[in-house]
């Protein structure tokens, strides 16, 4: 599992005094940065090897300004050329949101998906999602 913790910024709140639903998708992308580095250690955008194929977010509890959040990122599926990340937002020991994103290793020059290298699959496997007991 990868973890990223940061403070909720004021501009991320909405008129209802909680974090806007659009913010969580951005937090999840930030939480995937260590996964991106497995494919491109320098995050070289001129030779980017991934595309986002889909994502789904479930909102479980409100998230508030003034308290830090933690983004937990796991790998939940590894295919030939694609993989899924499963992510959670935690605040005050409460899971506030979860989501799954499908990423595809992609060759932009041929406009085709390509197989994920074996050594990267090994690294992805180190972060496979394990069901944790609720506390």
UniProtKB/TrEMBL annotation:
Similarity field: Belongs to the 4-hydroxybenzoyl-CoA thioesterase family.
Name of the protein in question: Thioesterase family protein
Database matches in InterPro entries: 4-hydroxybenzoyl-CoA_TE, HotDog_dom_sf
UniProt-listed Pfam families: 4HBT_2
Gene3D superfamilies (UniProt xref): Hotdog Thioesterase
Alphabetical UniProt keywords: Hydrolase
